[in-house]
Design brief:
This protein is mainly α. It is built from 11 helices and 4 strands, in the order βααβαβαααβααααα.
Length: about 240
């Protein structure tokens, strides 16, 4: 199984308005973010006056926008599912998506491996914030305070799962997810790369992914059980 390595799961620390003034830090360098945006994002996304949809939707007013907002753009089923789950493009989710899109939204069509460096993500987001409506009216802690990043430890990623144990544990999963690999409105989880599966489950466990049922299910699993499930579902072609 392929390993992605070095993927960061990020989530926010909430601050009160008064505390935000003392602890908030600018997301990043706007000028550098503009250059990075053109290099990394500009071939698919537009932003600014006259921006239109391209391969990806335009990114004006992206902050605090509901995911899959535009009726004139055809999103992937994974993005539509995230909208049904109530996802909003707040700073946490934008940062996580730039880190690795498929960790936050499985099934996304975005063909982008992500940005490992928090500085790069912060600079791009600082640039995009300037094209959100009335950014000066948004409290400094949301969306512009830097969050604390938490890296999924190498020890967790190195756990070798037991597929037989994973099969034993899988009965709760397969009450909803199909082993046939056919999509019936519920995401396919067979044939995933093991590390992708582990990262996704820990994202639910740490409430980075918003689905409440999956958050509950993941919260009951140990690191070893998640690895076992990843090993089992990874055996399917």
């Amino acid at each position: 199984m392929r390993r992605l390595g070095g993927v960061i799961l990020a989530w926010g620390v909430l601050f009160g308005a008064a505390q935000a003034e003392e602890t908030a830090t600018a997301i990043g360098d706007v000028d550098r973010g503009e250059r990075l945006f053109q290099q990394k994002c500009g071939s698919c996304h537009q932003v600014g006056e006259g921006a239109k949809h391209g391969t990806g939707p335009h990114l004006n007013n992206i902050f605090d926008r509901k995911i899959a907002q535009f009726g004139d753009f055809l999103y992937s089923e994974g993005i539509y599912r995230a909208r049904r789950d109530g996802m909003v493009w707040d700073l946490d989710n934008l940062d996580a998506y730039l880190t690795n899109p498929k960790v936050l939204v499985s099934g996304t069509n975005m063909d982008f491996r992500g940005l490992a460096k928090a500085e790069d993500r912060g600079d791009i987001l600082a640039f995009l914030r300037g094209y959100s409506s009335s950014p000066q009216d948004i409290p400094e802690a949301a969306p512009t305070a830097l969050k604390q990043d938490e890296e999924l430890s190498p020890e967790i990623l190195a756990i070798v799962g037991d597929p037989d144990y994973g099969e034993y544990l899988s009965t709760e999963c397969t009450t909803c997810h199909q082993l046939t690999g056919e999509y019936d409105g519920i995401p396919v989880i067979t044939g995933w790369y093991e590390e992708d599966f582990v990262l996704a489950m820990h994202a639910y466990k740490r409430k980075l992914r918003p689905h409440p049922v999956m958050q509950m299910m993941a919260s009951r699993l140990s690191d070893e059980e998640i690895a076992a499930l990843a090993a089992y579902f990874g055996t399917f072609e």
